[in-house]
Design a protein that fits this description.
Blueprint (H helix, E strand, L loop, with lengths): L1 H7 L10 H32 L17 H30 L8 E8 L2 E6 L33 E4 L1 E5 L4 E7 L4 E5 L4 E5 L5 E5 L5 E7 L11 E7 L1 H17 L4
Parallel strand pairs: 1-5, 4-10
Antiparallel strand pairs: 1-2, 2-3, 5-8, 6-7, 6-9, 9-10
The structure holds copper (II) ion.
């Protein structure tokens, strides 16, 4: 049943830990909504015919006398309560709120701007370099402090996030200007990037491949072209990529 609903919803195949559970939730909600939608539509058509003016020239002031609709209402409330308490809360707590232990996770800062995604990796030391808006310029889009030694080995990429497969990634999402939204549909990840806030999110990819990052908030005239890619690669490839990037970072003078 789940499969059928997900097919109707044209969901992209999940590629992250926990995504299948969110899909299950999505499927259950849509089944309930389908039953309710069809039920109400049938009732609506029945009411149109049953209470048509020709057969009912005089209004009935007493309304519905039997308890049928009350029972249906209670049934709907119970079903929704079960969905919320039995499924939505526990799945959200597990898939969204339980962050993986920091030691084992790859940390990445994501900074959204009109109209691009900046990714900052902390480099070998595992510590992000300090940032300050006063250092921001064309060459230094994130405003990394040139004096901070922790920032020397930081890797900065534009619109391309490369991560290893089967490893948890913790991201800290912020924005330089307006509200954007970091959406990776195959991971079932969607989080607003709000200026002035740093919002953590996490995911663990389970399938190698390249996944589109879609900005899911209308953020201005170039919103349509604000796309990035998450490249999920093997451990070996990730290490190679990281070394390449580190060499590049070391060759750069300044930041
Ligand atoms: Cu945007």
């Amino acid at each position: 049943m789940n499969e059928l609903m997900l097919k109707w919803l044209a969901m992209l195949a999940p590629a992250a830990e926990g995504a299948a559970q969110l899909d299950k939730m999505m499927s259950l909600i849509h089944w309930l909504m389908l039953v309710l939608g069809v039920g109400w539509s049938i009732f609506f058509v029945w009411a149109l015919i049953r209470f048509r003016q020709k057969k009912n020239p005089k209004a009935n002031y007493y309304g519905v006398q039997h308890k049928g609709s009350t029972y249906i209402e209670i049934g709907v409330i119970v079903a929704e309560a079960i969905l919320l308490v039995g499924f939505a809360f526990p799945i959200w707590a597990k898939v969204v709120d339980s962050f993986p232990p920091k030691e084992g996770a790859l940390k990445i800062n994501i900074v959204a701007e009109q109209f691009a995604w900046n990714f900052q990796y902390p480099g070998e030391d595992g510590i992000f370099g300090k940032k300050d808006a006063k250092f921001i310029d064309r060459e230094n889009p994130l405003g990394l402090d040139p004096e901070d030694p922790n920032g020397k080995d930081d890797i900065i990429t534009l619109n391309q996030m490369t991560i290893p497969n089967n490893k948890p990634v913790v991201c800290y999402l912020s924005s330089k200007d307006v509200i954007h939204n970091f959406g990776v549909y195959q991971f079932r990840v969607k989080q607003d990037a709000t200026p002035g806030m740093t919002i953590p999110l996490w995911f663990e990819p389970t399938k190698e491949g390249s996944y589109e990052v879609v900005c899911s908030q209308l953020c201005g005239i170039g919103h349509y072209r604000m796309r990035g890619f998450v490249n999920v690669v093997s451990d070996k490839k990730f290490e190679e990529w990281k070394q390449e990037q580190l060499e590049e970072a070391n060759n750069d003078d300044g930041w």
